Amino acid sequence: MVFISVGFLFGNWATLIPYIKQKFDLNDAQLGLLLLSFPIGATVMNPFSTFFINRFGMLNTTIIGLILLATTFVCPVGASCLALTSFSLIIVGMCLSVTNVAMNTCVTSLEHQYGINIMSTCHGMFSAGLMFGSIAASILRGMKIEPALQMGAIAVVITALVLLLRPTILGIHEEKIIEEESGGGGAKFILPKGALLLMILISLCTNVTEGTMADWTAVYMRDIVQTDDYFIGWGLAGYSMFMSLGRFVGDALIPRFGGNAVLRTGGIIAALGITLAIIFPYTITAILGFTLVGAGVSCGAPILYGSAARVPGMAKGAGLATMNTFSMGGFLAGPVLIGFISKSISLPFAFSIVAVLALVWAFLVNRVKLY
Questions:
Q1: Which residues contact 133 (CB under 8 A, 6 or more apart)?
Q2: Which domain holds residue 270?
């Protein structure tokens, strides 16, 4: 429920980015700078995420973080000026950071406790939420529903669901997770080196790809493909759908073929998908290209999060928090660079650089052991 809710929020927000661009009459470079606010907030908060986990527990932190995330997402779309929109995105990023580290730490603890593989499936639920959110937002945009009202209604529903399910969630999981983690010495942020550093470099590439798809797919569909309003979000929806499917089967593929092989193949597929959308900028071919990108990048986060949580000598929360802090640079730099390159040259050219980065991560996976 947590993963799908976070994805649903992001799907709605990403589809509303062209609305924000039009509302404030921004060019691509200005939009990129605005989108920088979000990862700045996440990056600033990442080193402190483990404090909240240790202080309040993983599940309580996840629950509180999700409620705050849903509530604060109303602010960027309802802000009356660009400065307030930017500030709101910083706050949203901070809420996401804490929620993200907490919910992924819960998953890795459950995997270790019960000897199961569910990380990829959980991230698949996020992707499913991203797909449904982008489709819902596209329909609502076509119906001319006010974006602030849209995000406000979503926040109310998610908050109600979280409060309704909170006693059940805490009663089932909290004690076992805390017991498993109590001997881990606590989760502390550390400077990366060795295997963790290579994982972070790979994650930078995958995060640039994911960030570009999330923030710029709808803009690409509107400005380059010039599709109808009803289809603006379908590029992101196709991307999210295949990312979701890839993650659902990832828990079977990763143990069978290994994280390295799965992530290497994914990089090649993602590069091909972006190339297709660039060469054939039509509604159907662009959607198809973005679906391939979703399939290619689908297992990246589950593999890298799971591997970061298994680095010898580190507590799970420490590896995840460190991974989040540094790899968030991909989300931070990606949308901004896309905006400036798009303004200077073109958006398709900017997307071609992302395709190259997908090939880079396909090469880097040969240098480190992934799980």
A1: 7, 8, 9, 10, 11, 12, 13, 14, 15
A2: 2-367
